[in-house]
Write a structure and sequence with these properties.
Elements (H helix, E strand, L loop, with lengths): L2 E5 L1 H14 L4 E2 L10 H6 L8 E4 L2 H8 L5 E4 L8 H6 L5 E5 L5 H11 L2 E6 L14 H10 L3 E9 L10 H15 L7 E5 L3 H11 L3 E6 L1 H4 L6 E13 L4 E2 L4 E2 L4 E7 L17 H14 L3 E7 L2 E5 L7 E7 L10 E4 L10 E4 L1
Length: about 350
Amino acid sequence: MTLRLHVDGDRWRTHLRSFGEREPEVVPVIKGNGYGFGFERLLAEPGPNHWGEIAVGTYAEAVAALGSTSAGIVVLSPWRRHDPSAGAAVGSDRLLHTLSRPHDVEPFAAAAARAGGARVAVEVITDLRRHGVTIADLPGVARALAAAGSVTCTALALHHPIDRRTGSDPVGQTLAAVAAARTAGIGAPLTEVLVSHLSAEELAAVRRGVGDVRVRPRIGTALWLGDPGAYTPRGTVLDVHPLARGERYGYRQRRARAAGTLLVVGGGTSQGIGLAAPSAPRGVARLRTLAMSSMSASGLALSPFSWAGRKRWFAEPPHMQVSLLLLPASVPPPSVGDELALDVRMTTTTFDTVLVE
């Protein structure tokens, strides 16, 4: 238990309550590693309104959640007939499934009929271009749903990009989708629109435009990670070794370029240390990325661990469960058992322990 997430429980839950008060229609997203807190832990969080409905990423997560919460469950991933977890979950009346292709309606309806019926949201494609039917598909989808007596459709779903490029209009896309769905006869009736990545101002604009249809934002990062001061990742120092100039160390037996200290710290690749989600840096960030890539190619890589106010260099690529760090001789080293501050992407990090204090 050497990679820990320390959580100020009171502060974190105050943030959750405040978020729920500002946006009472929120559908909390609980998926993957639970945004660093753990999937099961987030399922157990009561939330400001006891989370009457949550969203999960996959059918495998939906099956796990069914046994851990009494909330309704929105499955973000669209239904696919080859997914065995989808077959196991289709019979639960607590699930809202997502249909994203016209030709999935008929086989889904057959599966739903065998299970006694199911509820669905129809996903409409956006500039994200990940899943969804086109607006032109909606009349055909409406006819297929009407013919499927076992399927009840009450919602649309739209997943928008995070970045806003010139010409991007998520509000316009959402309003156009709702208008087209109403014209096509989607919904029995259409009662809600589930959206992702709309700002508060954009949500307000959509709500003004759709009348009595509920607009419900599906939110994960801004909810769970919205107060960074409420949680602190840390790695524990497991060993401290003096290192002479020219002395060899690590799997690859590199030579130390200068005298210093070799730290062995808890946290490695199996926990997400040294891994990063790809991004497309621009401007100054791009230059910094190119510089870091150059140093990495020459055997240097800056770690996410900090000591004495600065991030420290990896001595070599992280091991599976520990990392080796280099300290210059001018910096007094920590002691075994001390904890190093850690700057990591929470959605890719799995902690040994989450301490809610």
